[in-house]
Amino acid sequence: MSDLTSLSLLQTIDALKENKFSESELNEAYLKRIQSLNPKLNAFLEVVNQTKGIPSGIKDIICTQGIKTTAGSKILSNFIPPYDATVIKKLKSQNVNIIGKLNNDEFAMGSSGENSAYGPTKNPWNLTKVPGGSSSGSAAAVAADLCVFSLGTDTGGSIRQPASLTGVVGLKPSYGRVSRYGSIAMASSLDQIGPFTKTVADARLVLEWISGPDGYDSNVVEIASPLRGLAMTSLRGGRLRRPTRQSLKGIKIGVPKEYFGEGLDKNVEKVVRNAIDQMVKLGVEVVEISLPHTQYAVEVYYTMMFSEVSSNLARFDGIRFGNSRDHFGDETKRRIMLGTFALSSGYYEAYFTKAAKVRTLIKQDFEKAFQKCDVIVGPVSPTVAWNLGEKISDPLMMYLSDVYTIPASLAGIPGLSVPCGFVDGLPVGLQILGKYMDEETILNVGEVYEKSTDWYKEKPKL
Amino acid sequence: MKLSETQVKHVAKLANLPLTEEETKEYSDQLSKILDYIDQLNKVDTTGVASTYNVSEVVSVMAEDVPKDCLTQEGALQNASLKKNGFFATKGVFENE
Predict the structure, then answer these.
(1) Do A296 and B46 make contact, defined as CB atoms within 8 angstroms?
(2) What is the pLDDT of residues A363-373, one digit of tens each?
(3) For chain A: N or C, fewer Cβ within 10 A?
(4) With an 8 Å Cβ cutoff, are A356 and B41 in contact?
(5) Known catalysed reaction(s) (chain A) (predicted)?
């Protein structure tokens, strides 16, 4: 089989069971592809030679025992974690191995991948473009078939946005679905770990693998862990079971007018509207909804995130691990400074508390909207991938590129990016948001839509 | 909200961030711009609105105090830049050393 690196996770598992190739042939094929393409893409920071298991790529902000974990920062240039993150333990128990660690914006802070201390990752669809961020390497590696699937983290859009910009599936689970133990914390009230995959069905399987409480992340509680009917792809009992849904009859999709206003590229809008039309053909009913506080989401997000960042990154003292604090990069320092200021005496009420109140209003917007619909659909990113270097000198401009992903992060609800077309040869993702802890519905809607199109089959020419 | 260079220096001290003169100047500009943008939040009426700090609504989860497996001493020390007799070594707190 010459093209085994283009197989989805489910196809790979089936092929291994049917002895179409061995685990060592599988790993060899991926290692060879990494060797030939990574110099162009800079997706992997560290590659692990291995012969066993299903090769996955892991964002370099997630701790892997014995494998260097830098978080894209010079401050952790020599950090070798003495333990595995919970998600890594869970993957290893499913015969998944780590083929390497993936580049990201330093401490997951950035929307383009360019804030990594180890150089930017390139977009596989066009090497002069950014792949999005902060999980830049996780997205590029899956898009370029350098691993079967990858893990990333999403704080304000860092899974969904790069998935959209590189044409792969990206899932941010509900806050509290997946334990963050062993993931280097950025903003603890927002951070979530989730998969990048080649298909929606693959995302469902990886989510099933990594979900559930471990006793180390108090936000993940027992009640949140059973995925109601989500375990359709259970590996137990031989053959994988596949979802049976063929149409979207009976599903109501909400289209928020605030996600189609000023700032949305006209061509991206056209692609997203076509995807909604396609969903109508599949049987959905479209409901117009409003999320009136969307316009304040970026301000709320940045205020709270800066504050949590300044507190979380205080741990880097150069004593127990890592280098001294002068090794932080520009954007990291900027955020620590803003957060320290927002939490400082005399300003706490005006910034942090004010933002937390507006966050309530944003969360309530979604609660009201979901009384009228089952999922919310819109664009992930206002534009397709932009040129490397284009926004790097204007932090505020960069922050505004997360405008459609941030609200869901603040509300803690799950979000999926599914490939839905192209503009000038660059991928566009459709964002599907669900009710809190209702990954099941967004995955089902995403999968039925995906299977009715050929977009997910498109591969970059490398 | 304008952040003066003096304020930037004060915040840098609170954050334990060594900044160059050049960075101090640049941050005064950049941070002021970002704070101006964030100040738009003041347009929202939040009278009587509760704060959301965490959507999981889980508060102070307690655990039984029972011994469990943990990192070994070697594991805990393996990334330390300075160690002495099986401990982290660091600058003195009370002396100027």
Answers:
(1) no
(2) 999 999 999 99
(3) N
(4) no
(5) L-glutamyl-tRNA(Gln) + L-glutamine + ATP + H2O = L-glutaminyl-tRNA(Gln) + L-glutamate + ADP + phosphate + H(+)
Domains of chain B (ranges plus CATH)?
5-40 (1.10.20)
A214 touches chain B (CB under 8 A): no
Q: Is A189 among the catalytic positions?
A: no
Q: Quick check: A426 and A445 in contact, CB under 8 A?
A: no
* Interchain CB contact of B33 with A (< 8 Å): yes
Please give the CATH architecture assigned to the domain spanning A4-457: Alpha-Beta Complex (3.90)
Does the distance separating the beta carbons of A325 and B18 come in below 8 Å?
A: yes
Which two tokens mark B54? 């965490």
What pLDDT score was predicted for residue A454?
95
Strand partners, A149: A56
Tens of pLDDT, residues B47-82: 999 999 999 878 888 888 999 888 999 999 999 999
Which ipTM value was assigned to this complex?
A: 0.93
| In chain A, % of residues over pLDDT 70 | 94
User: Would you call B58 and A396 a contact, using CB atoms and an 8 Å cutoff?
Assistant: no
Instruction: Return the domain boundaries, chain A.
Output: 4-457
Active site residue A36: no
Which of these, A421, A457, A164, A450, lies nearest to A282 by C-alpha position? A450
